[in-house]
């Protein structure tokens, strides 16, 4: 289930509720596992993400949250892969949706995937006048 905080997702996996965080730490781990620079990640999603990509996505999200919060890492990427054997496909879609709504370096990040963007009607305030 998506959390109220942007870029977080909590689900029951591996026998307990665990949270993923799609942060700079997530992207660092995810791109390292896949062996791709960040600017090429959009290609993976456009072509359809592989099973190893899904496993890396879930693992990197869990790892980022747990490391950021000094939680015990009681799993590895292969255990996460085993957990995904019974994971609902529609929930993976929800996780990807939360990932695409996350931010990095203060900017919206859609990893090259087109999505509907609504213009803000708020007035922009000038900074450092």
Verbal overview:
The strands form two sheets. The protein has a two-stranded antiparallel ribbon. Strands 3-4 form a two-stranded antiparallel ribbon. It is of the alpha+beta class. The chain is built from five helices and four strands; from the N terminus they run ββαααααββ. Residues about 110-129 have low confidence and may be disordered.
Task: List the keywords.
129 residues; alpha+beta; disordered C terminus; 4 strands; 5 helices; 12% strand
Provide a short characterization of the protein structure:
The chain is an alpha+beta fold and 129 residues long. 43% of the residues lie in helices and 12% in strands.
Topology, pairings included?
Layout: E1 8-13, E2 16-21, H1 24-34, H2 41-47, H3 51-68, H4 77-83, H5 89-100, E3 103-104, E4 107-108
Antiparallel strand pairs: 1-2, 3-4
Helix pairs in contact: 1-3, 3-4
What percentage of amino acids are in beta strands? 5-15%
Unreliable stretches? 110-129
Structural class: alpha+beta
How many runs of DSSP E, i.e. beta strands? 4
- The residue fraction in helices comes out at 40-55%
Mean pLDDT: 81
């Amino acid at each position: 289930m998506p959390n109220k905080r942007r870029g977080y997702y909590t689900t029951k996996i591996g026998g307990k509720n665990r949270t993923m965080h799609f942060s700079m730490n997530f992207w660092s781990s995810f791109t390292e596992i896949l062996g791709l620079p960040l600017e090429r990640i959009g290609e993976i999603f456009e072509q359809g993400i592989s099973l190893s990509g899904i496993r890396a996505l879930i693992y990197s999200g869990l790892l980022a949250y747990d490391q950021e919060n000094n939680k015990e890492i009681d799993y590895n990427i292969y255990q996460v892969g085993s957990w995904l054997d019974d994971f609902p496909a529609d929930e993976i879609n929800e996780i990807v949706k939360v990932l695409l709504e996350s931010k990095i370096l203060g900017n919206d990040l859609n990893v090259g995937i087109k999505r509907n963007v609504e213009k803000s009607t708020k007035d922009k305030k000038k900074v450092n006048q």
